[in-house]
Amino acid sequence: MTTNLWVEQSWFDYKLKWDPKEYGGVEMLHVPSDHIWRPDIVLYNNADGNFEVTLATKATLNYTGRVEWKPPAIYKSSCEIDVEYFPFDEQTCVMKFGSWTYDGFQCSAKCQLMYFFSRNEKFYTCCDEPYLDITFNITMRRKTLFYTVNLIIPCMGISFLTVLVFYLPSDSGEKVSLSISILLSLTVFFLLLAEIIPPTSLVVPLLGKFVLFTMILDTFSICVTVVVLNVHFRSPQTHTMAPWVRRVFIHILPRLLVKEDWKYVAMVLDRLFLWIFTLAVLVGTAGIILQAPTLYDDRLPIDVQLSEIESKTAKPHITPSL
């Protein structure tokens, strides 16, 4: 995770106190931060080896000995990613700051953002003293519009095309071609999905489950289509209709028609599997997509919350009138 932030630090240095009356009323100075003592606050879980702030900006000295240093910094920290509900996932990354040299008896780390961090005390095997750290928990939710438009909706459309295979007449000769074309399209989407999500063998992402479910369903539809076509092109000269086939597909199911033909048996099979696969697509799609917990989370993003707070605390603007 790459974070662009300001590391605001303040401390008291008794060696930097002075009396403004003795120095012409000067109460504040801006000095290079390299010329004074600075706390060695570093990011423990960095990912690029840069522990400290690289840009040494000037520090502000107050006559009371208070020192303020607000350097900008770009940190790259390691973060464990859970892609189980991708693209409806929510990630929580941790940034762990602390002093590299001073232990808990010499340093007391405090922070103003009381609602966004936790103060921890840890003992290491090397030392008897505790070491303090400030851990920020940053929760991020992925914006799903791009993935919904470019992945989910096309995959849903392709999955419903699988159902139309059984609505296509067997005499057209394109049933197997349509099924194989759908399978190839899903393979392309599966390869595209593998390039987007981070490689992991821990869990299968939600969208990957949906694409895999559709591919398995389309594979079954190809097998069923081959069986239906085999039945369709049978004739009394090559295959004798079994009594149970005549009783089920000609006398029981279609009571209005009594045509003893293999083509009619194939048409009944097509219509039967049309409803079976339609139900399977609807139930499977809803059962997989609706597993994402973020779909039921109505919390407002932090930027919206802060904008509402600013609008409430802002002073009303009054235009004077003559």
From TrEMBL:
Name any GO cellular component annotation. postsynaptic membrane
Name where it's found. Postsynaptic cell membrane
Provide the Neurotransmitter-gated ion-channel transmembrane domain boundaries: 151-257, 258-288
**Single GO MF descriptor:** acetylcholine-gated monoatomic cation-selective channel activity
Bilayer topology reads: Multi-pass membrane protein
Domain Neurotransmitter-gated ion-channel ligand-binding, by residue range, is 1-108
The transmembrane residues are 145-168, 180-198, 210-233, 272-290
What does the protein in this record do?
After binding acetylcholine, the AChR responds by an extensive change in conformation that affects all subunits and leads to opening of an ion-conducting channel across the plasma membrane.
Question: Into which family does the record put it?
Answer: Belongs to the ligand-gated ion channel (TC 1.A.9) family. Acetylcholine receptor (TC 1.A.9.1) subfamily.
What is the protein's given name?
Uncharacterized protein
Query: What is the species of this protein?
Result: Aquatica leii
